[in-house]
Amino acid sequence: MSTTEIDRQWTTRLRKRVAGKLPPEKLLPDTQPAYVSSWIYVFGVATLAALIIVIATGCVLSIRGPLWWHQSSIGHFVNSLHLWSVEIFFFAMVIHLWGKFFMGAWRGGRTMTWMTGCVTFFASILAGFTGYVSQTNFDSQWISTQAKDGINATGGGSIFNVLNLGQMLMWHIVLLPLAAIALTAVHVLLVRVKGVVPPYEEDSEIVQ
Amino acid sequence: MSWLGSIIPLDHLGHYIHWHVILISVGNLVVIGLMVVTFIAALLLPFPGRGGRKASK
Ligand code: HEM
Prior knowledge:
The complex is a heterodimer.
Chain A: H1 3-8, H2 10-21, H3 24-27, H4 42-64, H5 66-71, H6 73-103, H7 111-132, H8 138-154, H9 165-194, H10 200-205
Helix pairs in contact in A: 4-6, 6-7, 7-9
Chain B: H1 2-7, E1 16-19, E2 22-25, H2 26-44, H3 50-55
Antiparallel strand pairs in B: 1-2
């Protein structure tokens, strides 16, 4: 094979593009700029850590299913771990969002970082909602019968039926986790590609 | 878990704050309050190891 032919291969092109945009030392850097040493930068990783626990405990719940998480004490415990890690996830995510908002962290070509964050927030709310209506208890019955009127009023009820437990469970354990994981992966990789945004005062001193 | 019920009564209606169009449960309001407090604390509390790294900058 000639070198031009090798250069045209999609494997070669993809490797060169990825290596150019995200070399290993950028993906896993040794140091960060001085301004990153603040607690406010911890909340992105806190959100990520909570998400990992949410997914892990959700997988454990899937092994034995609803009768187990309703009736056994260990099932109750794993169910509680799942719920409380979700609470921490949203708690950390909103503080992360506030922090990035006041830092204007979309500056310097970081629009997609901000936007993937927004869409992840939206997908997470849907995941939380479908989780509440997938509990298979009186609480989920109450929530879904209340929510159906709201969703039907938007016209969305024809494809997204909150009274359909099978559909809600599938969204909760397949589609929305996939979306959340994929979006989070892109979000974090974008942060690494662009590097942490400089604070406003540093930004005006250095020419980007 | 019965001891929990003696601290946080869970078997009657929750408390709500109703002010004009705003209706929010006390539980949710407390969580929002904690988030604001955590946010301010994150901005004000010194980050461990900060002094050392600043000096080396
Ligand atoms: C699943 C939810 C999320 C996860 C796991 C996550 C994770 C992260 C992580 C680990 C970082 C880098 C560390 C840091 O600066 O905190 C980051 C940065 C960032 N996040 Fe998120 N995030 C999430 C949601 C959001 C949301 C809802 C927004 C805003 C709408 C957002 C906006 C940003 C921005 C703009 C940056 C870039 C900061 C910079 O370049 O300096 N993220 N995120």
